Every structure is written in C-alpha cells, then in structure tokens.
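Subject: mismatched residue count in predicted assembly?

I count 420 residues in my input, but I want to confirm that the predicted structure covers every chain. Input:
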Amino acid sequence: MAEKTLDVLIIGGGPGGYTAALYCARMGYDTLVAEKLSPGGQMVLAGFLDNYPGFPEGIDGFELGERMRKSAERFGAKTVFEEVTAVDLAATPKRVTTHRGEYLARAVIVATGAEPRELGLPEEKRLVGRGVAYCATCDGPRFKGKRVVVAGGGDSAVTDALTLSRICEHVTLVHRREALSAAQAYVDQLEQAGNVTFIGGAEVVAIRHDRRVTGVTIKDTRTGETRDLPCDGLFVAIGRRPASDLVLGQVATDPEGYILADETTRASLPGVFAVGDVRTKAARQVITAAADGAAAARSVAAYLRSLPKD
Amino acid sequence: MPIRTVSSENFERDVLQAEKPVLAEFWAPWCGYCRRLGPVIQALAEEAGEGLVVAQINVDENEELETRFEVMTIPTLILFREGKAGQPLVNPASRAEIDEWLSAQGIEIR
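Triage response: the counts match. Full output below for your records.
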C-alpha cells in the first residue's frame, strides 16, 4: 500500500483534522485523513451545537462533521476509515501503520482528540451498554423513567444530570468534592429540577450488577464509610483525557498526556504537528480545534518547503 | 450493494434463509452512536461486494427482533449465517473492531 509518499497524513477526522485537510489540500498538497470511525470526532455525539459561528439556528454535530469532510474533499483531500495502530514519526519519510495497511508521509498532523475519562473500576468496561454510559444525550433515552447516578461535579456532569432529569425518574449526582465546580447557572437549574439529589464528598467505588447495573457503592471521602445506592444506570462525567497513546514517547507531552505544542502546532519532532483537543491549550472547543487546523497547515507548508527536493 | 432494510415481516426470508451471510445492524433514529457508525456501515455495504449483505433493523419498529436476539443496547451488530446468529458486537469504537470481528467469523473485506 505504501507505494507513494503523501505530503501530509492527518490522524483523526474531527474539526481540527478536517480543517487542516481543507487548508493543506487547497494549497495543493497530497493529503490523506485516517479516521477510525466517523467524520466529526467528539462533536458527532454532542448533539446540537450553539457555539459554532455562522449557524444562527445552531447545527447538529454530525452534520457539521460531514460538512467539514466535504469541504476538505472538494479540494482533493481523501479519507480512509482505518484505525492507526502504530507510527514512526522520527523516520524519513514518516511511517503510519493502520489496521489495513501502511502509509508514508512527509508530514504528520496528530488530530486524535480526547475521550471520556473512565472511573477505572474493574467491572466498568464490561458494563458499558449494560448500564454504564459516558454520554447523557446519547444514552439517556434508554433510561426513561429509571433511576440513574451521575459521577462528577463539573459543567459536563451537571449538564448531564440536567439532561437526564428530564428523562429519568430520579438522578443522583455524586461528586468527590463537597461543592460542585460547575457554573452557578447550571447549579441553579439543578436545584429547580426537583428530581436531582446531590451527594458531595463521596466517590463511586464499585458498580453492583447482575447482567445489568443494579446499583453503585459510594464511599464517604472523609469517614471512609460505604453505602449502596440502587440504580439502573451510571453516567460517568469526570472529564476527558487526550487520545495520545499512539505517539507517547515519540513527541513530548505534558504530565496528563497532552502533546506539547504552541499555536504554530509544532510538536517536538520536525514535521509532526498537533491540533485540537490533543494539544496543550486553554480552551477545547470545536472552533479552537478548527483554528489549530488552519495554523497547522501554515506550519506544514513551511516545513515541506524546507525539505530537500527528492 | 445497497443497505437492506429488514423488519419482522421479511426477517425470515431475507436474513435467516438468505444464501449469503447477513451483517445486521440493530439501530434507532434517535441513537447518536448509531449515527456515528453510519458512514462505516455505508462503506461496508459498498465494499462488501457479492459475498455479504449489509442490513439494518430499526429496534423501535421491531421490538420482537430486539427481544429475540437480546439486544440490550444499540448499535449492536450480529452476523447471520445459514440461519444462525453469531456473537454480537456492541457499539464498536472503530472500523478496525468491525473488521476484526468479521474476520473472526471468516469474512474478510478488502
């Protein structure tokens, strides 16, 4: 498969990846996006976006992902639905292995995004789809009229609890700290919901189940006392982690695993760039990911011009 | 081949008695994960050629099929061969997972 060398290979087809693809392809570079599942990345599951400019009525995340793919393909960028399994970013050209083949590229843009952080309980993975969930807008409808627990205390946990309060009979929000760290406006809505109980200073330490989730065990963070909360579902909303496992050890990352790169998106190895949620940055939004894509294309162009002609 | 829509009415004929293996996706229109899987299901249908039929079963309209095959969460993929259901694949996170699952059941899509 690796008969010719691409100018740019982009790992990940979210807003950062496809904006980079649009700019690179439009500059005439031979550009390929390797996407493991669906154009759009995390925004596919986000539902309706109200904070991406240019869409006064809002836009569906899946739809926006498809539009970004088409924008890039208009200028000749290509997509393969393949999962990247290994990379050699120090090689010349760079080598990218997927589950179906191998590619060579002069420059690589890492646009792998982030994914929900897990509680790390031994039974958690097995119970995904059997009561354990990470996306209230996606999985909430399956819990109509049921009792659920939400783990977490930030904006995403509280908005998840609000979403679920409209669907479920009862919602219990369990947070390690005494107080919620979510915006006050959300907390106020939570109090008005009427069917949400907040338990602060406690953490979920076990998931009880037969074939499906039947409850959780929570532990008081001060006294260490445990007790059982019966429920039908557990929604985990304790933040996100960068999807950088693929490149760990090859480019510099911060202690949390985000790829170290400034606004030029240049990572610590020449010809490697990081865009979107996987990069060290202050605000992780669809629009900031897209902005990274545009900046990356400029850095890629400068890098490709600096290479000796072959 | 285009994706085939399967319901309780044509399930017996189009899935259980089908000559070719049938990859059935249990899904529903409101399901975000199902939408996310959409482009890959489409690609599978296009790449499968003559050896495999790709089908979709809407669980909201076909609850008895959902119950019969113990579909607890969607999307769930089940490969039917000679009238028998294989091991289900629940909410795959990548095309690679689907390819691997198909390959374990003797189907290679290249």
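Chain A touches chain B through 26 residues (CB under 8 Å). Marking this ticket as 'not a bug'.
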